[in-house]
Amino acid sequence: MTIRDVATRAGVSPATVSRVFSQPETVAPGTRQRVLTAAEELRYAPNPVARSLARRRTGNLGIVVPDIANSFSAMIIKAAQQEARHAEYALFVTASEELVDDEERQARALAPQVDGLLLTSPQASDACLRELADIVPVVVTNRLLDSVPAVLTESAQATGHAVEHLHALGHREVAYLAGPDGYSNQSRTSGLQAACARLGLEPVVLGPFPARFSSGVRAADLVLAAGVTAVVAFNDDIAAGLLTRFADRGVRVPEQISVVGHDDTALAEMVTPRLTTVHIPAAAAGATATQLLIRYVRGDDSGVRRYELPSELIVRGSTGPVTARST
Amino acid sequence: MTIRDVATRAGVSPATVSRVFSQPETVAPGTRQRVLTAAEELRYAPNPVARSLARRRTGNLGIVVPDIANSFSAMIIKAAQQEARHAEYALFVTASEELVDDEERQARALAPQVDGLLLTSPQASDACLRELADIVPVVVTNRLLDSVPAVLTESAQATGHAVEHLHALGHREVAYLAGPDGYSNQSRTSGLQAACARLGLEPVVLGPFPARFSSGVRAADLVLAAGVTAVVAFNDDIAAGLLTRFADRGVRVPEQISVVGHDDTALAEMVTPRLTTVHIPAAAAGATATQLLIRYVRGDDSGVRRYELPSELIVRGSTGPVTARST
DNA sequence: ATGAAAGCGCTAACAC
DNA sequence: GTGTTAGCGCTTTCAT
User: Fold this and answer.
1) Residue ranges in chain B modelled with pLDDT below 70
2) Residue A321 lies in a domain
3) Same domain, yes or no, for A191 and A267?
4) Same domain, yes or no: B186 and B71
5) Domain boundary at B262, B281, B300, which?
6) CB burial class (10 A; 0-12, 13-18, 19+) of residue A36?
7) Dist. CA A180–CA A117, nearest whole Å
8) CA-to-CA distance for A241 and A263, rounded, in angstroms?
9) Residue A316 lies in a domain
10) In chain B, which residues have their Cβ closer than 8 Å to the Cβ of A53?
11) How far apart, in whole angstroms, are the C-alpha atoms of residue A141 and residue A126?
């Protein structure tokens, strides 16, 4: 079922059929109707592959996330998908499973089949990313790279607020559980350090840990051994792991120890007690990055090549005042 | 950078270059090397779109999931991606956000760009699915449909075991929180009903509920009002919602009420207490479905067109013996 | 073992 | 407004 079959049946040229499906307004209403009818009868639909080849663009966007099972990634994907659809692009998702090699492979496989590529918190080398950016328009999130447009979720300030919050509750001994190296961890760490310096606290920094639940379970005992009254975790998964292990050891949260997460994923409201956490605007980041990518692909360059999205401390049940027993 | 550039540089015909990248063994080692060198120097890589058009297959597989943020979907995707890569296919993921229209749209958009399509727990009409299956090889999970190969996660037996487990713990008043209609809910409901009948119990069936955390929060009060001592939820998200609301209302689990989930997602081990749940083999389902799809696409038809994967009750901390106060 | 030539299905100038 | 004519970049007979 090709454009020629439809053309023959409608008694027009293939070009006209093509126009009906690409720029309907340029063909006379009568002809258009005849073509559409013929197409309908033949159950014809344009072949997107052939179309991509001829147009030299695919109408597809690609996104590579570190881990599809991670709900932070999921929020970004959802937002990106919505923006993409809105602009009539299809979005292809692939996951790197946190492996640098996979990430590179996925990105390279995707690159020639899409008009633009969104890399979220990429781990690949600068050189590799630049090479990709030579092949296809690339936008990254949470990664600083010359000449590649980026959307950053800046959390230094909000993480600082978390420290102030703990300080106000009377906490003087605070631990930070670092995540994998990258923009996110740096932003969180620097915000925490700065606030601590301001308040005269000396944080205990542990890690780096993989950004997973199991890391939190493991870290819980280290935190307890460190003798702190409050702990700030790189993300909610780690914080949830802490909660579980604390519960197992009979340590009450927040009475005996306060816990702060990062990301404000769905998990934060699912655990007991609900997590105080730094809300990272994942959906906004996904949407902004996708819009940026689309503008980039289309050539309507807005000039802005870097967005910093602010975060916000959300106070819930996992933080509370220091009690006598805490120390 | 096309095949012709490489051909010119290597002093061979375009056909030879093509062969080097498609069937290397058919070209003399010397020539092959020259071509590869030329390609390297020109940083040439075959254009997958052109290749797809000429070969009339894309080397891509597509998967449509109801909700990318759902960790059950995530497990299936991970397994599918692994199988796909193993067979040298790229996997494109799209989500329907639980909307039937979206599902249909996503599937139709994907269909002409892939060699095969995997639809997980599809909600679309039989007619729509069959239409898709006419365009492209389709495999479904958790959906029964004539002439479309399927992988089913059968849970009637394991859900029955959950009921037996509760019965053995002394529970006589049991509620079931139904999920959205479909194969999964039917399989779970029928297993539950059968076991109850066998044991002389009369379950209170509530719902259907959307398979989300918030549904569980809402359902918790209904469950309490129903006066049961145990509740089986359609999935872990709902069960987690129950746990949270019970905690808020000061109802202790499992001392005052026992909770059973379904799926055995990561969440089941993240909540307090850890969820007793029916393990559904999501990864196995994803892997099996993908293998089936690949065989189907390749034409090596094994004859088997339907797989039923068994589930298993995992006992954890959210179920316990009935106590005097329970009733 | 390699090359020439004819497409794959669609688009895009350019005519008319 | 519509048709003609070249491709888009690669594969694949069919010769040689």
Assistant:
1) 324-327
2) no
3) yes
4) no
5) B281
6) middle
7) 23
8) 15
9) no
10) 49-50, 53
11) 14
Nearest to A143 by CA among A107, A176, A113: A107
Residue B50 CA distance to nucleotide C4 C1' (Å): 20
Are residue B229 and residue B250 in the same domain, yes or no? yes
Q: What is the pLDDT of residues A74-104, one digit of tens each?
A: 999 999 999 999 999 999 999 888 889 989 9
Ramachandran angles phi, psi of B301, nearest 5°: -80, 120
Those residues with Cβ within 8 angstroms of residue A303's Cβ, 6 or more apart along the chain or in another chain: none
In a domain, B22, yes or no: yes
d(CA A261, CA A234): 6
**Quick one: three-class SS letters along B130-149?**
HHHHHHCCEEEECCCCCCCC
* Distances A255 to A25, A238, A242, A243, B79 between C-alpha atoms, Å: 68, 19, 14, 12, 41
The reply to whether B322 falls in a domain is no
Closest nucleotide C1' to the C-alpha of B23 = D11
Nearest CB to A271 within list B47, B77, B270:
B270
Residues B141 and B253 in one domain: no
Strand D bases near protein CB (under 7 Å) are 1-5, 7-13
**Domain harbouring B251, CATH code:** 3.40.50.2300
Give the DSSP per-residue string, A261-277: EEE--THHHHSSSPPEE
Output the CA torsion B9→B10→B14→B20 (10° steps): -140
Continuous segment of H or E residues that includes residue A65: strand A60-65
Amino acid letter at B156?
Answer: A
**Residue A124, amino acid:** A
Per-residue model confidence (pLDDT) at position A303: 78
**Whether A99 and A179 share a structural domain:** no
Q: What is the phi-psi region of residue B280: left when phi exceeds 0, alpha when psi lies from -120 to 50, beta otherwise?
A: beta
pLDDT for B50 equals 97
User: Are A209 and A266 found together in one domain?
Assistant: yes
Q: Is the same domain home to B24 and B135?
A: no
In angstroms, what CA-CA distances link A165 with A258, A261, A318, B137?
Answer: 11, 13, 12, 56
Sheet holding A258-263, edge to edge: A204-206, A174-177, A230-233, A258-263, A276-279, A312-314
Which among A52, A93, A272 has the least Cβ separation from residue B93?
A93
pLDDT value, residue B325: 56
- Provide the chain A residues 136-165 that lie in CB contact (below 8 A) with chain B: none
Give the residue carrying structure tokens 């540089």.
B9
Cβ contact A148:A138 at 8 Å: yes
Positive/negative CA dihedral, A223, A227, A231, A234: negative
Give the integer Cα–Cα distance in Å for B7 and B12. Answer: 5
**How many domains does the structure of chain A reveal?**
3
Is the separation of the CB atoms in B114 and B60 below 8 Å?
yes
Joined together, the tokens standing for residue B96 give 């329907």
Residues of chain A in contact with residue B53, where contact means CB-CB under 8 angstroms, are 47, 49-50, 53
Instruction: Determine how β-strand A150-154 pairs with β-strand A306-310.
Output: parallel
Spatial CA neighbour of B235 closest among B256, B202, B255, B207:
B207
Nearest amino-acid residue to C8, taking CA and C1'? B54
Please identify every stretch of chain A with a pLDDT value under 70, giving residue numbers as ranges: 324-327
- Cβ atoms within 10 Å of B196's Cβ, excluding its own: 20
Say which of A91, A241, A270 has its CB closest to residue B213: A270
> Cβ of B98 under 8 Å from any chain A Cβ?
no
Question: Is-contact B170 B321, C-beta < 8 A?
Answer: yes
Enter the pTM of the model: 0.94
Residue A296: per-residue pLDDT:
94
Distance, CA of A318 to CA of A274 (rounded, Å): 6
